[in-house]
Amino acid sequence: MLKAPWLGHWKAPWGLDRGRRWGDPAWALAAIAQAWLLGGREGLWPQVEQEARRPFGPQVSRQPTVFGPRPDPAWVARLRHGSPTVPASQRGAREDELQAWAWEALLEGDGAPWMAVGSVLLDRPQRLRWIALLGAVDAEGILHLPPFLDILVPPALHRLPPHWWAFLLQSQDSGGRLLPEGALDADLPWSILQAHAGSLVLEVLPEGLKPHREAPWLAALPGGRWMLDPRLRAWARGFGASPAGLEGLALNGLAGGAAPEVGLTALLRLQPSPAFPDGWTPSLEADIREDLRRPSLPPTSGHPTWDRVRMRWGGEAPEPAEGYPAWGTRVHPCADPFHWMAQGQRAIQACEPEAALRAFTLAHAHFGRLTATGWAGRAASNAAVAALQWADLPAHARWAALRGSLPQPWRDLETAQLAEVHLEPEAALTRIRGLVEAHPGLPGAWGLLASHGADRERWDLVREGLAGAGDHPYTRFLHAVLGPLTEEPPHDADPETRLSWETHRLFRGGVDPEAFWAAWRACPTQIMCLELGLQVMERRPDLRRASSLLALQAIADRAASPRHQRRLAALWPQPDAVADPAPLHLIKDWLASLTTPTWITWEEEGRLHALGTGEAPPEGALSRLAQDGTLAPFAQGPWVWCGHPLVWEGCPVGAVLLARPAEAVPTAPLEPLLISPWLARIRARQPVEIAVEPGLLLTDGSEPMASLLRELDRVAASDLPVLILGPTGSGKELAARELHQRSGRSGPLVAVNCSAFAEGLLESELFGHTKGAFTGADRDRRGAIEAARGGTLFLDEVADLSPRLQSLLLRVLQEREIRRVGSDHAVKVDVRFAAATHRPMEDLATAGAFRRDLLFRLQGAVLRLPPLSARRHEFPFLVPRFVVRAAASARRPVPALAPGLPEALARLPWPGNVRELLHALERAILRCEGGTLKPSHLPELEAPMAQAHTWDDATRAFQRRLLLETLQASGFRVAEAAQTLGLARPALYAVAKRLGVDLVAERSESTPGPAVRNREVGRIG
Asked: What average pLDDT score do residues 879-883 get?
């Protein structure tokens, strides 16, 4: 049982001096250190209740009784974000790479990275001060500290006589001096004790105390040191476990967080110095200049930091020293950044990219603590390389931002390498071509072209790339792959070459797949493992195993690559790929257990299906039964046969033919009641109840949607404006969202409906306004264009823009800058524009209703969404997925689909397209009340078949009919008709022209001639 101030056993002598609330890293560090001491170090994390007490920081309010392998996520969320309602895994806005890694590891039950964060977050005096705050003592009096503090206390001091450490921790004043307790023992040699009571530890035993070496108030320590009972030292006001008392005993050097020496200070500033070790100056100055050619290796110095710097030039690893972990240790509170740089280089050489990334992360953090910006940049550059090799692409992007831009041509080479990951093969090839053209003398560029060709089996590209690849490490494989590739890879081949070699041997057959998997497991370049592993799984379905797919999934998740995620998702069998076999097996097992002939039949898509057991029924009986649904009793041999319909929830699903012995007593058959629900399940199609597709636009991959999605994927990564055309309800906004998702842009998608605002309000909505620009503008407000910075602006119903707003938008597209309403200050914007309309833009431009120059700007690329009537062949694929979405919208469970329902729905015109179909399905799901979705739940199927026409056609016909009826009612008096319709007289003429109404001809047809009028008068008279 531990005792500590944070457990309430005594009051801490001072506060944390860091942190002010939950969500602060310093308070999180203190809270995690307490949980670490209570069990986290053994992998038993307590469900701990802590209170925030200022200034002393987190305090455990109740001794924990529940432990688990991982901390409580709500507790982690409170420490990380200040609130348990925020997801614990969500990264904080101000977290550096070390803290983000520490939180990620903590959620998995590993608190070691947080114990290393302490040596970065706190300087040495603060860490010494925290010993009295976080120190805990067990029942034997042994001191327990979190590792970032434990490293500072000499191991010989951890075990003292009982009660000594408790007194050293608790009985101190604000200056760190001990406070006396109890009464003074006059029999002790106070004159001698007082002379030696100042220091916490005596290096040698003074002569005056040698006669008392056996006294209980004197303790011998390892190494010939001695220590006085702190209760006696308190009367002389000696120091306790405080910075002043421990400073002379704590670990020195960079490992303990002490200030660097003069020579190391100069090296950290990347400056030459006469204080460099003898014989080291040429090597150190070459390293400072980053010369590629280095002088000969300098001699060892015996100094732990300098000898770790020497490892940068190929020197051997020094023996572990005090405060330094053993080589290969993943994480440790050692504060020497040069140790972690050396550890990272060792991990790179050992093909361990994750270990290298973690080591460089620690190095970067400690270089930052020492304000060594140049070395921090070097560590960030190394971390970026390790992250790319480890396939942690988000981390690579963050490290690349920290390191700064690479010099050419390496910057263009890295861009092309990333294009291989993020883009489709053809788009990636375009980037690689650009790299080769820009840097024809770079062997790596030609090697990338050749390796791209090998992955796609484009042997022309392999030959072209080999011409300029030089001594690229991949060259041996590229030469071999142009031949039969029957031989094994060379024994000295690097892991990447070996993996590519074994992959292509596997593609050509005749090789054990285990050789490929052995090379796959040994390759440290995880992006390469992901790409080649996917290619093998796609080409060799017989090699797919759940374990292999999960291993690829882990890399794809870490890489956060949508392209690889989509390919990997396609390799897993989908729930709706095959019918559920369980009901069929159940019926077959039941039939096999019967002793009398029983046959089930049904018709589906013009085919007769039958299942049965026992003697075959008379010829033609099953087809007649399937056609009529019932069959009157008749005798055949020893049996009397009778057919009964199988009905479930009012829908006929089939029929059953039963045989009974001729002498048996007739009874009501139970078989129809037993079989009907199971046969209905076999015939019903159950939609998948998970997210149906990774994309927003659903398609089975057929035309015309396949061409649309290919075009969308081609233009997504560019900055071209995109014009999306299509009838109402066809999914134009979904297409815009899909375009934004595939673009890779970091900003948001902001949608604006141009028909929903008056002109003045729409200008403010798009461009924003300044305070006082108009009545009601009581503050500055940014518009949708500014809000979409770095992302995509989607202008829905763009054809409804007024001429003035068209002009303003044209300027934005040309100049890439905006002015808020009421401001004369231009703001640069980086926005990708997408626009949509259901109206014919070319006709509007011809009529002058829409600026043609703006139309040319908007249609950098054009996506034409087809109406739903053009996708009738996709209904068997679309309807089950639309049912899933409709059920989610209606907050109802997903129903099964009655047989033939998608085909029945495909016969309707659906002028409102996808939106109309979804609403119809939502209403039907509410009607079916959890049962099977049947045609009877859709009144649209019972209505007479309407003539198929588009929504625009129906709207145009309605407007034409209304215009003619109004004209006839007003006797074709145009002014009166215009007033009735709320139009100006010129506008009525324009509407009539647009609708094809000839006013003169219509008036002539509606006004009877003189002869007609005379006859009418005669009949009346």
From this structure: 86
